[in-house]
Amino acid sequence: MQAKSLKGRSPEEIKNALSQSISDGFTPTLAIVFLSIKQNLEKVCNILDEHKIAIYGTTTNGEFIDEEIEEGSIAILLLDINTAYFFIQVAELNGVDDRKITSGLCVDALKRFDHPAFIIAGSNLQTDAEELLLGFTDAAGNDINVFGCMAGDDTTFTEQFVFTNKKSSKRGIVCLVLDEDKVMIRGRSTSGWKAVGTEKTITKSEGRRIYTIDNIPALDICLKFSGLSIDDPNLPIELVINFPLQLQRENGNPVMRPTFMINWDDHSLMASGKVPQGSKVRFSLPPDFDVIDKVINECEKLKETEMPNADALIIYNCSGRHLSLGPLISKEIEGIDKVWNVPIAGMFSNAELGRATNGNLEMHNLTTCCVALKEK
Question: Residues with Cβ < 8 Å from 319, sequence gap 6 or more?
Fold first, then answer.
């Protein structure tokens, strides 16, 4: 499988870049498209449609095809994969039946491929990404390979879109379904954040809302640990990017659960994902160079143990991670790029979806999810 990546700041630039990429006889059949909501989604899709290229697409909080990070642009990974080895699914979500919807998509995929794998993207801030993942495991078991993200919107937190040829949705899911008997897919979801202190217990919670930790109001215990002031106007963002919670799992590494909203009446906190009552959490230290090194090291381990060679790489990186690491995020992307040295396309997302190291499928935050592909 040959792959090429291209980027542009307008549909016209993408059209020109595409023309150059196919001038040597390269005939892509699939495009992984990451674009800003500022871009004309329909025009970009029409350009790819003209060349009969199937589209898996999502809006972003930033895009890249190398360590140079763009905002407000378009990044595309082109693949000339055999059309018998993949297909695209798209479905509307409603917040009620989402688990059944993704389970149904998985059942349909199993009718076509004995061993399907999924690269997905979901839209709408109200969509429960964990429910989406559970639908796939309901239908195919815990070993099913699913990677992806929740769409972004240039961090405006307004509307996000997923799309394919001639169809887009602001509350939907798009799935690139791959035949694992023909295409190898491997991934790593790594945050690299250092945990600190003893485990603490979520003593009262409901869904994503955390009321008390060790029977102390959640905000109060977070303030005590972080040393932040309750009068700090940037308190919510400081809790997200510098002092996120790590939700401990029985199997695999912990998953990040930053808190992003404060209820001042009872000092409860809203987390990025579900934090079950009775679960254990630890606090995190602010990030340093080790956070980057751990992500790169996990990719190196993936290459050594499971994926010695790859044809292409997709990177989903949390927009909160970008805020936390600042310009250092370019060093992380550069380090990942050097592991396989193949064409890549990446984006900054509202959530990352994939298997935690030695664990189950999870919805992640402040995490980097790397997905390597190789046609067999």
Answer: 61, 62, 152, 155, 348, 349, 350
The one-letter amino acid code at 43 reads K
Residue 329's SS3 state is: helix
Residue linked to tokens 């003893």:
198
* Strand residues in 224-321 grouped as ranges (E): 245-247, 255-257, 259-263, 268-271, 280-284, 312-318
pLDDT more than 90, % of the chain? 88
Question: Which helix (H) or strand (E) segment is 363 a member of?
Answer: strand 361-364
pLDDT tens digits, 2-26? 999 999 999 999 999 999 999 999 9
Each domain of the chain, given as residue ranges in start order, spans 3-190+290-375, 195-282
Contact indicator for 201, 374 with CB cutoff of 8 Å:
no
What's the mean per-residue pLDDT of the chain? 95
Take residue 284 and report the two structure tokens written for it: 């995190």
pLDDT number for residue 251: 76
